[in-house]
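Troubleshooting: if your tokenizer reports a length mismatch, compare your output against this known-good record of 297 residues.
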Amino acid sequence: EDFAALKLGNHYLVIHSDPITGASKLIGWYSVVVPSNDVATSGAKPKWILSTILAYSEDEAKSTLRDIIKYSKELGLSLIGGHTEITPGITRTVVSSTAMGLAERIITTSGAREGDLVYISKGAGIEGTAIIAHDFEELCAEKGIPEDIIKRAKKFIWEISILKEAMIGAKYATSMHDATEGGVLGALLEVSIASNHMIIVDHIPIREETRTICNTLGLDPAKLISSGTLIMTIPQELEDDFLSDMEKSGVEVHRIGIVSRHGVGIVLKYENNKIIKEYLGEELDKLYSPSDIRNDK
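Known-good structure output:
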């Protein structure tokens, strides 16, 4: 599961910790939204956060703390503690945050049942698209990706929170799971493994920006890191109410398949019923490998 839960009377205290080590830009945003997302997959509304900041300079420590306070408020959390220091010997700031929230019932990844409809929010590769547009902007330009596509893709970084859809989904879903490393396919496989049910996938929605960038760089958007994409399994009899609530809240959701019989695996109907039973890796890693696509002529 994405979280720990402690029973406290009639409620559960849901807790998740995450270190942010790879991000240099917007590390304050990441350090709030990433652990909050994992708490939200339980159905709990994130309410409190503690952050430990290990900074390489005093200015960096101050700016990171300001950002954490700002983004915590925007997402409805209170920063209640943590630690800040200037750490000798490091060249980039590291933040480790713990988010907490309360829930009356817990939704788990393992709760998916046969016949449930599989929905995702937004689309595939949301976070990965933003990372590529920010960190590999020069490469994208070299490969001929239009400037307006890159600009729009950069804005995806502000869509990686799943709090809104998770709070709505919690009223209907039998399971919820955040699509992080390994993308939508990786997350679906984790739901399949946890619930011991096969998942049949009809299609995976991909935005124009994601499709253009991935096609150009030779990446599979369905396996691209996708914080901001929430996997939800919804009982068929609750689908209409679920969709009505999502529409009222302005949340983009797509039905992509159905939970099937007992077993482990994802059946891709759009690829001649190809079955995936093992983790396929993270597409973003290809950009950081020695033989990355900079050398692919």
